[in-house]
Amino acid sequence: MPELPEVETIRIGLAKLVPGLVFARVDFDWPKGFPNLARDVSKHLIGARVLSVKRRGKALVLELSSGYSLVIHLKMTGQLVFNGGGERFGGGHPNDSLIGDLPDKSTRVIFSFKNGAKLFFNDQRKFGWVRLMPSREVSNLEFIKKLGPEPLASGLTAREFTERFHRRPNTSIKAALLDQTVIAGVGNIYADESLWGARLHPAVLVKNVSIYKFEALFRELKYVLKLSIEKGGSSDRNYVDAEGKKGSYLSFARVFRREGQPCPRCGTKIIKIRVAGRGTHICPHCQRWPK
DNA sequence: CACTTGACCTGTCCGC
DNA sequence: TGCGGACAGGTCAAGT
Prior knowledge:
It is a single chain. This protein has 291 residues and is an alpha+beta fold. The protein is built from 8 helices and 10 strands. The protein has helices at 4-17, 37-44, 135-138, 142-146, 158-165, 173-178, 188-197, 211-230, and strands at 23-28, 50-56, 59-64, 68-73, 78-83, 107-113, 118-123, 129-134, 271-275, 278-282. The longest helix has 20 residues, at 211-230.
């Protein structure tokens, strides 16, 4: 689901809405996704104030005044939707929102604040999770420690970007792009979009990708991620932002979910293949197998 | 070790 | 209309 631009869009929305709010209660019905929530809620969550909302890769971190943090991963179908109190979602335009009244049958956790506002964690497929843990231990989480650099970090150079990929020389460039320990935050949509931008076939092995292609890939990846954040992310079916609104990146997508349509560069019909176990969209003319 | 595949879940869509 | 199978934005554990 949500990849870097979608999680970042949610983070920006929540950062405007929740800092300063105090937790009053938490309701959840699916212990498997929230292993330690029940045990620690009364001591470290109730009565705590939200200090900040941060993102690392595809994970969100809400830092609390209790010294604890909520770490949240939305996986494929997770949503975090805020309701300031009483009003319907969608800003008066029902078609802007995929969400009707909450809670609904995909609601897994309801965070209620002292002022009456609520934050709903919805997740149709139940892959997502929420953890409550001491803030200073967040950076020691195994998956956080292993995460690659943020692709949009100002200090990241094309050279460092390229070197990260060479940790996986014998895998396909697409599998490496999707590997969160190589570069953080890239998922299926922006992998396909950036590979098209760089005219790279997704199944080419990392060791056979030239330094010039890596430079192009780095540039194109940053371009699609920034553009998507500007557009509020991509909404296929489930994704909505903190206010329940869809993002519009997919109407700008060049190949993703566009099989059968003409390549915007050369007009060749876009095809869908399978690479790294994932549905993969390419222009067979622009993204030819290298000789 | 490096890499790929299946499993985790629910819902939807497509072909018969 | 019903039913089976494939597939969906992610990530692990298990398999080769």
